[in-house]
Amino acid sequence: MAGLLCGTKRKKQVSDLHEEGKNAINAPMLPAGTEIHPEDTLMEENAERIMLDPTSRDNLKFKDLLKVLIDWINSELEEDRIIVKDLEEDCYDGQVLQKLFEKLSGRKLNVAEVTQSEIGQKQKLQTVLESVNELLRPHGWTIEWSVDSIHSKNLVAIIYLLVALAMHFQAPIRLPEHVSVQVVVVKKREGILQTALVTKELTSTTEMMMGRFERDAFDTLLDHAPDKLNVVKTSLITFVNKHLNKLNLEVTELESQFADGVYLILLMGLLEDYFVPLYNFFLTPESFEQKVHNVAFSFELMQDGGLKKPKARPEDVVNLNLKSTLRVLYNLFTNYKNSD
């Protein structure tokens, strides 16, 4: 009996050693902490799978990005009583993405409301992503997602898609900038799994993501003519102080003093000759949300005065984006430069 047990033990040791050797050959470059799941070894020849490196999940900026996106989705879909807690588990079947796209675009998609089968889920995803891609591709977005990547719960692909939607529809959120993660790319070549570690940039700067292919005079001014930029800033400061001085207020820094929206609101009241009730805005805003409310309200006042809706987002002004602030003020200057 003892001999039988020893023989069994030796066989198990040999089997374990064989398995360890196979893994060492198949995944020589696999980062520490990354698991190869059984389904990965069953990949078809030349197939490719992308997995998020575990260390990237602990990145604080990455965690912040996840939270911002989840909170945004839940805010948008509140009326549908949809609550997202996990992007991988809640977005892969297409239901949440369908509702989100319909809400943002105002379009109703011709898809089944509830789909349990994998085929049905992929068909829904196909319809949703075709509509998304048709909308985003003309604006220069690189399509970093697919039906298979979303359905296989590829978190990186899901985030790329959500960031693109948030930027395109000018979501009232502040995405953390310069968020990068490392992904493990697993490929099967001649029956052997090959791995590589690749860095993926999920967000750049808000300015780059918002105005990807829309460079204008201010871009040129900031990049190539800083001396002329100072002349423009001086002219704008003179213009706003001409009016704000009536309230014993004075601006010396365009970047910072309009960031909370208070001076923009007061300036609109002076230019249009009316008093803005204090209960309509935060006179001493403290939070980011309060400042965004103020700037957005000033934009409404501008539109009420017959001006076009500013190209800049309220969030960009609050974030001290000089170009966005200049655009807003220059718009006021061209329309009210002759006002007393």
Automatic annotation (TrEMBL):
GO terms of molecular function: actin binding
Record-annotated Calponin-homology (CH) domain positions: 63-170, 230-337
Gene: parvb
Keyword Transport: no
Protein name: Beta-parvin isoform X2
Keyword list, A-Z: Actin-binding, Cell adhesion, Cytoplasm, Cytoskeleton, Repeat
Localization terms from the record: Cytoplasm, Cytoskeleton; Cytoplasm, Myofibril, Sarcomere, Z line
GO biological process, one term: actin cytoskeleton organization
Highest rank taxon of the organism: Eukaryota
